[in-house]
User: Which sequence fits this backbone?
């Protein structure tokens, strides 16, 4: 996969340790199931897409006894597909399969990857990297920050606690002021651990009764990132704008920043001071 657009049958046989006729038999079977695609024009070769890669991750999670069975698809985002699953002892899980590096038009993507860096399967690496990073961020935040409990990582997939709730944009809160406070407290808790979400919005907050959980962390940054204050402001602005529009809550960015980021305030004061000294 790393070096060929279509992996020659001989390579599959060699790497898998299967006799070529056995390898061909199994690949044909997978190709009939549309798990892999087959090409015979230049030579006999195969390639796989995300669906096949999902199956590899899932079978690894099953081998490790993390997942016992998989259920319905519960979310499709720009860069992921999320399924419900049952874990050991029938605890419910969400499995997030990353989809970074994908474009809607398969062919264009493959051509582009080919031109860009010679790696025909940049999508695999992009998705794996994103999952690994998101999982590490989540393990660093849990349980101090209210997020789904991270359970396991495999390839481009993350198994985590399933949150039975609704996205913030889909509920009618009876206590919006309280809910906003809770969200800001969580942003602060992450900030104290050195992390800014950087894609926070009403779509990445799940409400369950009196609780909220913040999801979707692959683009999180450290607070020493050069754009940290800008991204924190953007996160807060998204949330404040949502509460202002839907619940007519008037909460200023300054107030929210004060609540979340003391370090920012200090930097802010330093900036003010320097400005005063200059003038
Ligand atoms: P994306 O980057 O694709 O938006 P998300 O992490 O936000 O990825 O997941 C997509 C959707 O899947 C979410 O909007 C949510 O509805 C659902 N989802 C994700 N994680 C969970 C979870 N742990 N429990 C329940 N639903 C989840
Ligand atoms: Mn999301």
Assistant:
């Amino acid at each position: 996969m790393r070096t060929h657009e279509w992996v020659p049958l001989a390579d599959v046989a060699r790497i898998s340790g299967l006799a070529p006729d056995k390898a061909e038999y199994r690949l044909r079977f997978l190709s009939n199931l549309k798990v892999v695609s087959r090409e015979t024009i230049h030579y006999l070769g195969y390639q796989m897409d995300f669906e096949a890669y999902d199956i590899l991750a899932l079978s690894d999670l099953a081998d490790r006894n993390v997942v016992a069975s998989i259920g319905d698809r519960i979310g499709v985002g720009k860069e992921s597909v999320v399924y419900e699953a049952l874990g050991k002892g029938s605890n419910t899980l969400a499995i997030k399969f990353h989809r970074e590096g994908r474009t809607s038009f398969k062919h264009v993507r493959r051509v582009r990857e080919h031109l860009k860096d010679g790696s025909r399967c940049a999508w695999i690496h992009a998705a794996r990297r994103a999952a690994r990073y998101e999982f590490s961020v989540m393990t660093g935040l849990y349980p101090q920050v209210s997020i789904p409990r991270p359970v396991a990582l495999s390839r481009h997939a993350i198994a985590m606690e399933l949150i039975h709730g609704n996205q913030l944009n889909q509920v009618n809160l009876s206590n919006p002021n309280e809910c906003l406070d809770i969200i800001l407290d969580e942003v602060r808790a992450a900030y104290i651990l050195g992390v800014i979400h950087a894609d926070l919005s009403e779509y990445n907050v799940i409400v369950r009764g009196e609780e909220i959980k913040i999801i979707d962390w692959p683009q999180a940054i450290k607070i020493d990132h050069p754009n940290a204050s800008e991204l924190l402001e953007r996160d807060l602005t998204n949330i404040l704008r949502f509460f202002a529009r839907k619940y007519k809550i008037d909460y200023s960015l300054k107030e929210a920043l004060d609540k979340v980021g003391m370090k920012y305030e200090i930097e802010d004061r330093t900036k003010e001071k320097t400005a005063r000294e200059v003038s």
The chain has three domains: 7-48, 51-161, 166-270.
